[in-house]
Amino acid sequence: xxxxxxxxxxxxxxxxxxxxxxxxxxxxxxxxxxxxxxxxxxxxxxxxxxxxxxxxxxxxxxxxxxxxxxxxxxxxxxxxxxxxxxxxxxxxxxxxxxxxxxxxxxxxxxxxxxxxxxxxxxxxxxxxxxxxxxxxxxxxxxxxxxxxxxxxxxxxxxxxxxxxxxxxxxxxxxxxxxxxxxxxxxxxxxxxxxxxxxxxxxxxxxxxxxxxxxxxxxxxxxxxxxxxxxxxxxxxxxxxxxxxxxxxxxxxxxxxxxxxxxxxxxxxxxxxxxxxxxxxxxxxxxxxxxxx
Length: 292
Description:
Elements: E1 2-8, E2 11-18, E3 25-29, H1 40-46, E4 51-55, H2 74-88, E5 94-99, H3 101-112, E6 117-123, H4 128-136, H5 140-144, H6 147-152, H7 156-173, H8 183-193, H9 198-208, E7 236-240, E8 262-266, H10 274-277, H11 279-291
Parallel strand pairs: 3-4, 3-5, 5-6, 6-7, 7-8
Antiparallel strand pairs: 1-2, 2-4
Helix pairs in contact: 1-11, 2-3
């Protein structure tokens, strides 16, 4: 693994790289509250055949962390990654892989800049229309997403950091398998969260999103969302761990309306942290799908 620093649109960003330049390029986008090292296990398995690039996204790790909420609008986050892809792969689109919030950015980039993305892979992440639809029902997904209200509240950063980042660790677990979080790995995560301004930057992703999260039992009519602007025009793979308690599998219903070339595969023994828990199975599924 090599560590790189790069200037994107006048701001400093950091990314990790595995494999060999010239091999097919996979850009890997982490979610909350991770950083580029979230892909270590999977990238090591893919790097014999693929050149893997994993950036610290805006607000995370060693990348730029502005403090304003508006700095974390999805369009700006996708713009960062568009600039990265244009720099590292100026002549060819890339395979784009996203998890959790990284999936949100990956979808946004695929909608807006399909010229930059040859194939889209999502690990336990949700299409924005399908997610808002499930939330609007005010049922199971709305109940599972109540933590978003806590994160959006002013001062949530301090609560997450209290007791040696106990709040973050509780969010990580949320009734899911955390056996992959070794003491050494936990120390590395805490070191990244401790960088100045990072906690606010990370939480601002939740504050900036227009996503409407109702209280359980308080469903509402879907807001107007232009489906024509949310189409995945490239081949699309979703790998899903059914033990996820934050994102529920109902969010996959109707995804085929937005992706004409869609493959969904369920990975046994996995939940939201699928790439940590089942890296062998995930790597095999990705390699097989790309070969097809």
